[in-house]
Amino acid sequence: MAPIKLAIVGGGPSAFYVASRLLHLLPPSSAHAFALKIHMYDRLWAPFGLVRYGVAPDHPEVKNCTHKFTEAAEDPRMRFFGNVNVGKPSPIPYTLPLSFEALLPYYTHVLFSTGCTVPILHPALPPSEHCVPALSFVHWYTQHPSRPTPPPLERISHVTLIGQGNVSLDVARMLLTPPSVLAKYDVPQPVLDVLERSAVQHVSIVGRRGPFQAAFTTKELREMMNLPDAAMVPLNPALLEAPGAITRQQSRTLQLLQKGSKNTFGTTRKTWSLDFFRSPTGLAAPASPSDRARLTLAHTMLDKDARAVPTGETSALGTDLVVTSLGHRAEPDAPWYDPALAHLRTVGGRVVDPAGRIVRNVYASGWAAMGARGVLASTMMDAYAVADTILRDHFPSGDGEVRSTTPLGEAGAEVDRVRDAAAAAAIDVLPQEADPDAVPPEVDAGLREGVVTDFEDWKAVDAEEIRRGEERGKERERMVWEEAREFLARARPRHG
Fold it and tell me: How many CB atoms lie within 10 A of CB 396?
């Protein structure tokens, strides 16, 4: 049987969890150990995706998963290629372009772990100088290679967040936490400089439903309540009347909201509010430089199906900047993207084409396959299941070397029945065999020229960022690509 030579497109948590699982299930002691080669391609020059460029800087414990990812990347059967953009042109100008067609001939298997990178916009709030997606804000404070324009916080006193999920609370916390507190974390110095000049005094967090439907977690809400230099505007007690039986998490949320913030409202310079049962209908630009933008909000209520419906009342909110946090979708130009789902269509991790046919040996995991939902733990479980599927599809069912895969029960058996029924009509886009070590010539050239990074490059940069951080008394001091490339040219001259 031919070896598996897997190209993983994407270098975030799901990609690394799949790779780690495959390497674990075929350990060096396995008879099939060297029947596996993994090449991971990421458009970003540094690995780990959302763990590096999405996790809030003051949540360093969430990044502990990178230890497991590093262990996988150091396995000699796996290689990482950063700064390689597979597919449509990248907004990051210095990446190496590589077409999907140029990649396919070198691999027997392909996994898409490309996530959901396109923010969902509110139809009434098109992007403008007064309205930006939360993704741009997060990319700014994590120094993402896309390099969004820093927000003019020195001219802003009021920010409105649309959406009440954890990302909204992350943004609010970054705006309201004193920079002196953030300085010990993984916050780049240019970001701290902007936050030091910030004039933000109030953050409104707007949601179209009520406190019992809010998407934020109890942990994130508690962090907001404990902000050292900000206070929450007290809620109308009528909003906190339980509609009946509530879940344990709802009960904890209710208790936090009833208790309120650690700082009493009126005792701090900065404040924040949870504005429930409000839905934006428009944003008018300021009438003059001294005015604020005017956000129109429809008042809402819940119908019998707990959906937000307008009451007919409206109000207006003066604000300097609106930040929308309404979720994300996959890139619509991705191969086998399903517009009805806003991500790739899959059956048990196997990619399906528009005609409903399985694309043999092509898989998707994480948000690319499920949509932008869940936390790292659910991403891990999905990735493990997809890794198991790859091995089940490749090796005979009676092969004792791969019996350690996750039991899938009746649901898994049904997925396999669907797979078997579709197998006869499956389409082939990949070769059955491939040179185990070959990569596209463009990638080879990029490595020699120092445009493409490998995991040894990342380890060198990682150590240097931590060293620079220690000099400043913080977790790390990040490099942008130009700094990293210059550093690598000195530290690893083969990239010069």
Answer: 9
For residue 279, CA distances in Å to 159, 309, 470 come to 16, 9, 45
Separation between Cα atoms, residue 286 and residue 264, nearest integer Å? 32
Q: Are 109 and 430 in contact (CB under 8 A)?
A: yes
What does 146-179 look like in DSSP terms, one character per residue?
Answer: T-PPPP-GGG-SEEEEE--SHHHHHHHHHHHS-H
- Compute the CA torsion angle 391, 394, 399, 405 (nearest 10 deg): 10
**3-class secondary-structure state, position 14:** helix
> In whole angstroms, what is the distance from residue 457 CA to residue 451 CA?
11
Helix, strand, or coil (residue 347): strand
Measure the CA–CA gap between 385 and 207, rounded to whole angstroms: 34
Residue from 76, 75, 27 nearest 437 by CA? 76
CA atoms of 364 and 175, how far apart (whole Å): 36
Phi first, then psi: what are they for 316, rounded to 5°? -125, 145
pLDDT, tens digit, 9 for 90 and up, residues 423-465: 667 999 999 999 999 999 999 999 999 999 999 999 999 999 9
Residue 33 to residue 17: CA distance in whole angstroms:
18
> pTM of the predicted model, to two decimals?
0.93
Cα separation, 6 vs 434, whole angstroms: 10
Whole-number Å distance between alpha carbons of 288 and 284: 11
Token pair, residue 190, equals: 């240019």
Residue 432 token pair: 């059955």
Give me 189's structure tokens: 């110095």
Give me the half-sphere count of Cα atoms (radius 13 Å) on the Cβ side of residue 186.
Answer: 23
